[in-house]
From TrEMBL, chain A:
The chain crosses the membrane at residues 41-63, 208-229, 241-263, 421-442. The keyword Cytoplasm does not apply. Residues 315-401 form the CHASE3 domain. It comes from Glycomyces harbinensis. Keywords: Membrane, Transmembrane, Transmembrane helix. It holds the Pfam family CHASE3. Residues 1-20 are annotated as: Disordered. This is Sensor domain CHASE3-containing protein.
TrEMBL record, chain B:
Residues 1-27 form the signal peptide. SMART domains: PBPb. Belongs to the bacterial solute-binding protein 3 family. GO terms for biological process: amino acid transport. This is Polar amino acid transport system substrate-binding protein. It comes from Glycomyces harbinensis. It holds the Pfam family SBP_bac_3.
Length: 449, 318
């Protein structure tokens, strides 16, 4: 670009030294009647728009990152801990009731399962209490934390009396399960609901498009284009390299902003559809199965004195295995995934075996063949209900692991599509600003040369 | 200009750091109730039945054995080859599952076995049908069982629905308390004492009428023992047979005071099965005469009740 002498008529009046501050605005307005002033005005508008787009774009991306970080971070950890707590408590109760029926001599496997469930529950309580954000959640965790030792105390009393051959052990076990069923599991469920709600709020934040930044970027682009047209009319020169550079940089800015936002929204959505939703379903199925198992054992522990337990078993089993219920919904969710749908099919088979076996156990118990009923319910033969329940549980756990991996993958993809975007957008907008400023300043300088 | 932008960016970044860190800064510690485990369905203020008791009959008067043969009795079984007996498997010492062997055992079981063998012979095919107390009358009506030996008190209301044998055990309502409580009988109970018993049982009414203690009811009286051990209630009241079954499980508890109600236990049959009732009455006389009854009593109840028990004498209406 060659520098030409400025047109004489555009000579700006020299600013009067020591002018009263009140008159500055008038003078600035007056200066807009002349080209250099107009150029400075354009630069001011461009600077404002580019800066605006840059700051809002960068902050939007940073916010998205923070939110995605949160789904794997705070809310994510809270919802995972809440889910683990709910599962561990159900598992503990299912195992405690089953092992009670083995006449004081539970298998090593049952003992280990019970202890592991208690460990998982206490770890989950500790994790969750570090992640809670609301007083309501704090209270739920405190309630659970206060009740867990009471529950384990009742279970140990039940075991001791059972070993001593005192029937009152059965009542202790029933009381423990009542505490679990009526106070602890509902609290754990509420905590899980709250955590999932917070997670869903984060997700819709993460999927939102950064409209403010997009509008500002488009406005800056429009202004740039208009300024170039205006300038080429004024100066009879087609290109102002500074402004052209700024335009290209801004186009890059807008493109990156749109791409990063849409891609991360897509990944976040996938993490929800392929990860979080089936994970919730799987967990619900597992927990329902565990609660059904606990009720089944209680029917036998109560020696026929608790007909409500039989009804509660039916309620859980219906919610798990009836047409259109949890297992069917899982089947639908995994329809086009052979690995997961094979797991669900195996789980379904185990649930069906368990269900028909349960009717047999109830029949045996009603006929007074109590020993046979107990052997069928908790015995370690391959045909016992314990075996069916264990298979069901294992299949659901395996499917959960696969789903959890998918969730983590999609969240990582969402995070990756944002990586560098915030810094990149800041650099692009800064460069655009500098480029526009240089381009316009060169023109302005011609008037004072 | 550039410096300005850097400052803006720094400010924006600071906002995020702050937002990310604004966690549970000043949350008050939550107020949590002291967890007290309670059985579901516990009622601390149960309604007390006040309708007059039906005393229009002599509840002890059954049918005399006469000349009814085992053949005639078997004809009234639902299935002539086996005998179905309704029992409890949750009432320690009377009818319960031994937690170690899962086998049925108890005083009621011994009496029922002896009766079944009288009807069907020594290798009687007995089908034990466990049931709750509320299932007793319906299970006879629905032919699920032939007879019921399950701590069942004979009274006029029930005579309208079932046939009873002669009295096979003379129970009465008493109190189970911690030995250290100093309570020695009904007179020691005050309005501050909580007394636990099964809901829907006549024990609630008896204790409410004869003492000012506050009754607490639970769906299954076994819950009472746990509540007493946990200190939630001060005493348990129900039939002495059931209290004995609780007392043997805890050396710090004892059955105290005189019986303050009369609970004659009878074997129940479906209404109209009088031949079966007559034959069983004959069998009961034999069981009492040959010492089977006394052996069962000594095995199960003598120690816990600390009373030299004697079999009740039969009373017949014809």
């Amino acid at each position: 670009m060659s520098v030409q002498s400025p047109p004489a008529q555009a000579q700006a009046p020299a600013p009067a030294a020591g002018a009263a501050p009140g008159r500055r605005f008038d003078r600035a307005l007056a200066s807009l009647r002349y080209t250099p002033g107009q150029l400075r005005g354009i630069l001011a508008v461009l600077a404002a728009l580019i800066l605006g787009a840059g700051v809002t774009g960068m902050t939007a991306i940073l916010a998205k990152s923070a939110v995605i970080e949160e789904t794997t971070g705070q809310s994510g950890r809270l919802s995972v801990a809440a889910l683990q707590l709910y599962q561990a408590l159900s598992q503990a109760d299912a195992t405690a009731t089953s092992s009670y029926l083995t006449a004081g001599t539970p298998s090593d496997e049952m003992n280990d399962t019970y202890r592991e469930a208690l460990r998982d529950a206490t770890v989950a309580i500790a994790t969750a209490s570090g992640e809670v954000k609301t007083p309501a959640d704090t209270e739920l965790i405190a309630e659970l934390n206060a009740r867990l030792p009471v529950y384990t105390g009742l279970v140990e009393s039940a075991r001791t009396f059972n070993r001593l051959g005192e029937p009152v052990g059965a009542t202790y076990q029933e009381q423990a399960s009542t505490l679990m069923r009526e106070e602890m599991l509902p609290s754990a469920h509420d905590l899980q609901d709250n955590a999932l709600e917070q997670l869903n709020e984060s997700r819709s934040d993460a999927e939102a498009f950064p409209w403010a930044a997009a509008v500002l970027a488009v406005a800056a682009l429009a202004t740039l284009v208009w300024a170039q047209l205006w300038l080429s009319r004024k100066t009879n020169r087609v290109f102002n390299l500074g402004l052209v550079g700024a335009t290209l940089l801004l186009v890059g800015f807008a493109g990156w902003l749109a791409f990063a936002s849409l891609a991360s929204a897509g990944h976040t959505d996938r993490s929800h559809e392929e990860g979080a939703v089936p994970l919730e379903l799987l967990a619900e199925a597992e927990i329902t199965a565990q609660q059904a198992r606990a009720e089944e054992s209680l029917v036998l522990i109560a020696r026929g004195e608790d007909s409500d337990a039989a009804e509660r078993f039916e309620t859980h089993m219906t919610a798990l295995a009836d047409p259109g219920q949890l297992l069917d919904r899982l089947d639908d969710a995994f329809a086009d995934d052979p690995e997961l749908s094979a797991r669900v099919d195996a789980a379904r088979e185990a649930a069906d075996t368990w269900r028909s076996g349960h009717d047999e156990v109830i029949k045996l118990a009603q006929e007074g063949r109590y020993t046979d009923a107990v052997a069928m319910a908790v015995g370690d033969s391959d045909t016992s209900l314990w075996a069916s329940f264990r298979t069901l549980n294992e299949e659901l756990t395996a499917a959960t692991e696969v789903s959890a991996d998918r969730f983590a993958e999609a969240t990582a993809d969402a995070q990756r599509s944002l990586s560098g975007a915030a810094a990149g957008l800041a650099v692009l907008s800064l460069a655009a600003l500098i480029s526009a400023a240089v381009g316009i300043q060169l023109r302005v300088a011609e008037y004072y040369a | 200009m550039i410096r300005h932008q850097i400052r803006l960016a720094a400010a924006a970044a600071a906002c995020f750091v702050l937002a990310a860190c604004s966690g549970p800064a000043n949350m008050e510690p939550p107020n949590i109730d002291v967890p007290t485990p309670l059985p579901s369905g516990i009622d601390f203020e149960p309604d007390i039945e006040t309708a007059p008791v039906d005393e229009s009959c002599d509840p002890l008067a059954s049918y005399s054995p006469g000349a009814v043969t085992a053949e005639q009795a078997r004809a009234q079984l639902d299935d002539g080859e086996q005998i179905s007996i309704g029992i409890s498997q949750s009432t320690n010492l009377m009818g319960y599952r031994d937690p170690e062997t899962n086998a049925l055992a108890g005083f009621d079981i011994d009496i029922a076995t002896a009766v079944a063998e009288a009807v069907l012979g020594a290798d009687a095919n007995i089908r034990w049908v466990p049931m709750t107390s509320n299932e007793r009358v319906p299970s006879l009506d629905e032919d699920r069982v032939d007879l019921i030996v399950r701590t069942m008190t004979m009274n006029c209301d029930r005579w309208n629905e079932v046939e009873f044998s002669a009295e096979y055990y003379h129970a009465g309502q008493r109190l189970l308390v911690p030995t250290a409580s100093g309570i020695t009988g009904l007179a020691d109970l005050t309005a501050d004492h909580l007394v636990c018993t099964g809901n829907g049982s006549t024990s609630v009414r008896t204790i409410a009428e004869q003492s000012e203690a506050q009754a607490v009811t639970v769906p299954d009286f076994n819950d009472c023992l746990v509540l007493l051990q946990q200190g939630t209630v001060d005493a348990i009241t129900t039939d002495d047979t059931i209290l004995a079954g609780m007392a043997v499980q805890d050396p710090t508890l004892q059955v105290v005071g005189d019986a303050f109600s009369v609970e004659p236990y009878g074997i129940a049959f479906q209404k109209g099965n009088t031949d079966l009732a007559r034959f069983v009455n004959g069998a009961l006389e034999t069981i009492i005469a040959d010492g089977t009854w006394q052996a069962a009593y000594d095995k199960w109840l003598k120690g816990p009740l600390a009373v030299e028990g004697a079999p009740p004498g039969p009373k017949y209406r014809d």
